[in-house]
């Protein structure tokens, strides 16, 4: 039989970390990287006929058409990449991820975004904050042999509340389950986001966790309107709105110190 000390050490070995979950567009960056790409085209705007093809809940397919248009304008992947490097970060985010990079023993950090892996990778690498992140979950994108960016849907799922290509709750639940199997358990989770697709994952969070909607954006409005509770599922995490990522950093420091 294990002594109390040995059991405690075993528990410690299993590792109780804090999990930070971030949306990307209008959360980590202060813009939408999918629409930012239009700046790489000669006209710096999309033809109306193309804009009209967007159907609600089918953003990724629409972006596929946008990326073909960008490719047709002879825009190279290199120039898209340099345009991505000009996207502004939200206030305090770079400092927050620099802090997280220095505390990887205590903090895991993931992105769950409906943008795409290519743009996110380019932006994180350019800012030198890549080491903060353990995983980026987004629609897979690559450059084809014509030099066009192509985007695929992340997954299919059964959630009726979410866009067809991505349920952030399913991604979060699957990640936590896989980590648990690998021996990593999370004591707390903080989720920061701004959009309507950031509501679903908050429903799987636990008491003591912190849901952080960006002040003045859709997610905060939905939470203030009580949308999460209307369908009978009361939210368990504490809700704390933020304007600058400095406020997210304060919550994080309070959890780990
Ligand atoms: Mg967003
Ligand atoms: Zn969902």
From TrEMBL:
Binding site for substrate: 34, 114
Chain positions recorded as Mg(2+) binding sites: 23, 25, 194
Residues annotated as catalytic: 23, 25
Official protein name in the record: Pyridoxal phosphate phosphatase PHOSPHO2
Alphabetical UniProt keywords: Hydrolase, Magnesium, Metal-binding
Species of origin: Clupea harengus (Atlantic herring)
Keyword Magnesium part of the UniProt annotation: yes
Family annotation (InterPro entries): HAD-like_sf, HAD_hydro_PyrdxlP_Pase-like, HAD_sf, Pase_PHOSPHO-typ
